[in-house]
Amino acid sequence: MARRLLWASLGLAPLTMIVDLVAHVGDVTLFVLAAISLVPLAWLIGEATEHAAQHTGPGIGGFLNATFGNAPELIISLFAVSDGLYEVVRGSLSGSVVGNLLLVLGFSLLVGPTKPIDRRSGLTSLALVLGAVLLFLIPAVPSWHGDHERHSLQVLSIPVAVALLLGYLFVTRRELRRHRAAHVEAAHAGAWSLRVALGVLAIATAATAVVAEILVHTIETFADRAHLSDFFVAAVIVAIVGNAAEHGGAVVVSRRGRVKLATEIALSSGAQVAVFLIPAVAILAWAIKPLALSFRQVEIAVMAGSALLAALLLAGGKSSYWRGAALIGGYVGAALAFYFAGNR
After folding, report:
1. What is the DSSP string of 30-80?
2. What percent of the chain has pLDDT over 70?
3. What is the largest CA-CA distance in the chain?
4. Quick one: which of 14, 48, 301, 313 has the most CB atoms within 10 Å?
5. For residue 186, is pLDDT > 60?
6. Cα–Cα distance between 124 and 175 in angstroms, integer?
7. Which of these, 52, 59, 94, 53, lies nearest to 73 by C-alpha position?
8. Could you give the CA distance from residue 85 to residue 83 in angstroms, rounded to a whole number?
9. Angle at CA 213, nearest 5°, toward 207 and 216?
10. SS3 (DSSP) at 148
11. Each residue of 47-70: b (16+ CB within 10 Å) or e?
12. Cβ neighbours of residue 31 under 8 Å, at least 6 residues apart?
């Protein structure tokens, strides 16, 4: 039922484009339409990437999953950089980390049965997030005084981004080796042809780029009309939308009893944003406008606090209803912190 609904809702993307070109409706309507349209597009990108990876082997498959799995967030970030919305970029990225660690993981544990989870893998992902947060302090702390977009901070962000990407590649290579046999055995099992998968991937990514541009161009007006800060809209609404399909997938998997897999999805997604997507955006932004990884105190504190809370609750190696509820409560607290922080 959910898959049929997602296939049907793919028509929202062309509808959003037509409304933007022809109907001349307000920015608030366009923002809502674009946000909803990104959900099925994100799902389709994930679906096509998964099918393509069945044909390419674990090495290229892992690269495809890392690159295109984060395509909606990456595209949104780069358009926001182009518009000079640096707080929106950083807010959506930090909000994505927090959303995965607290909201997605929380709902996954809440709806699933009490079962053992992969404690080692989960704590590794959380350690990666905490390591990334420590490195973010290098450009972030100096930004808390003076101009937080100054050139020296932009330059200082580059070695941080490179170090995180190298760490990501090292950990990913190790994990791919560990799971190589499973990947090989699963190859071609009911997969689309490689040509079809890559074609769908190209079309879905192109559509996402157009819809993401509409979303970014309407963020400020939507935030103003809704009496919300641009930062809050980015850190909560845009971050949830960019990950919506993946979030839903983790919860559905958990509901079916596969709590270990759902936990892996949530935690590895949060780690991937911290050590892959954020540094990738920082490096690619130099082709448009340099971006400093000058995260605010509230962003650093909430990302670190989210990782520590998740580690504390998962240290026992078991899932449970109350742990899920505690994580969701933590997300509500994080969202409130983002709300009261307002724009810098």
Report:
1. HHHHHHHHHHHHHHHHHHHHHHHHHHHHHHHHHHHHHHHHTHHHHHHHHHH
2. 90
3. 56
4. 48
5. no
6. 11
7. 94
8. 5
9. 140
10. coil
11. bbbbbbbbbbebeebbebbbebbb
12. 215, 218, 219, 221, 222
H or E element at residue 327: helix 321-341
Distance (Å, rounded) from C-alpha 12 to C-alpha 153?
40
Of 61-75, 116-130, 173-187, 222-236, which gets the smallest average pLDDT? 173-187
Lowest mean pLDDT among 117-126, 198-207, 245-254: 245-254
3-class SS at 286?
Answer: helix
pTM summary value: 0.87
Q: Where are the domains of the chain?
A: 2-341
Other CB atoms within 10 Å distance of the CB of residue 173: 13
The residue ranking higher by pLDDT, 137 or 253, is 137
pLDDT at 232: 96
Residue 302 is predicted with a pLDDT of 98
Across-strand partners of 116? Answer: 318
